[in-house]
Specification:
By secondary structure, the chain is mainly α. The chain is built from eleven helices and no strands. Helix 7 (166-185) packs antiparallel against helix 10 (259-279), helix 8 (190-223) runs parallel beside helix 10 (259-279) and helix 8 (190-223) packs across helix 11.
Length: 320
């Protein structure tokens, strides 16, 4: 069962920072435009005006970017200047995102077809396009920086998968894929659709991906490393806040229509909790070790605070 850490109320998400400091990336207008509850202080009171599905589609049109416009020249110099052990440690986060984007690009089709309205379907089509662009972003980074030996996308995906831990496969290949496969055969099963969107948009994307992005981007910004990667990864994060905003609206609407959908959200959170927690730790992690300047406790607390905010907006109170 998911634990809600007693310390989580003291966690500061990016929005809640010293007013005298430079604005955090998630305070920028383009990030705030997504209305992802995790970025909204009002979500602590369950008060966020979520965008409509059509408005989320229009926002997608306004927030386009090109992977081919990013310059990785400095990134190549930085990467090969890192000690070998640091390059190895960085590979866990990179691999999780690269493989995750590719898997979701494949799995979103049945979710899109099962969406009950045309407005939902239209937005989910944009998410499929986003995930494909994210795969290409990582593929270009790996290729131009020379991270891997493989010479094509398929080979890079296979090579980098060696850095993942078993919990990653549990979440994607067991829990998410089983629900998506059911939707492919029974697209009218809205309860399974609620489970799939809870698992992907709230946990995989909302808790895990956006938490990892926050700390990876911050670490590189603080150290002045991998500027091309940071530029592109900021764009990826903005896309994913928009996706999560869709998931929050969908789940709030479904939870308000029938108690069984609210139960499905909570049941899914409980089921995936252990695997989700396990994904946060690389295979080489040792208890008490800091991951790029951040403790595992800080990482967990950040992820849980973001989930708490979204669940309050959806209508599901934190579990004691």
């Amino acid at each position: 069962m998911l634990d809600w850490p007693a310390s989580q109320t003291s966690v500061s998400l990016p929005l809640m920072i010293d007013d005298t400091a430079s604005p955090h990336r998630t305070e920028r207008a383009d990030f705030q435009a997504t209305r992802d509850p995790a970025l909204m202080e009002g979500a602590d009171r369950g008060q966020v005006n979520l965008l409509s599905y059509h408005d989320l589609y229009l926002l997608w049109e306004r927030q386009q970017w090109q992977t081919q416009a990013i310059d990785f020249t400095k990134d190549r110099e930085d990467w090969w200047g890192f000690p070998e052990e640091e390059r190895f440690q960085r590979m866990y986060g990179l691999s999780s995102f690269f493989i995750g984007e590719q898997k979701v690009a494949e799995e979103l089709g049945p979710i899109m077809r099962a969406a009950p309205t045309e407005e939902m379907k239209l937005f989910l089509c944009t998410q499929i396009a986003d995930e494909a662009r994210h795969v290409e972003f990582f593929n270009r980074f790996y290729q131009e920086v020379g991270v891997l030996d493989a010479g094509d996308l398929h080979g890079r995906l296979e090579e980098t998968s060696e850095h993942l831990n078993p919990n990653f496969h549990t979440l994607f290949d067991d829990m998410l894929k089983s629900r998506v496969d059911r939707l492919a055969g029974e697209p009218e099963d809205l309860e399974v659709l609620v489970e799939a969107i809870t698992l992907y948009h709230m946990v995989i994307e909302g808790m895990l991906a956006l938490t990892g992005q926050h700390f990876i981007i911050t670490y590189n910004e603080d150290n002045g490393t991998l500027p091309g990667f940071v530029e592109g990864f900021n764009n990826v994060a903005r896309d994913e806040h928009r996706h999560v905003a869709f998931g929050a609206r969908f789940l709030r609407e479904m939870a308000a229509t029938d108690q069984r959908y609210l139960d499905a959200i909570q049941r899914t959170l409980v089921e995936c909790g252990p695997a989700a927690d396990g994904v946060l730790a690389p295979p080489w992690y040792e208890e008490g070790q800091e991951l790029f300047g951040v403790s595992m406790e800080e990482t967990r607390a950040f992820a849980m605070k973001a989930l708490e905010r979204r669940m309050k907006v959806i209508g599901l109170a934190p579990v004691a």
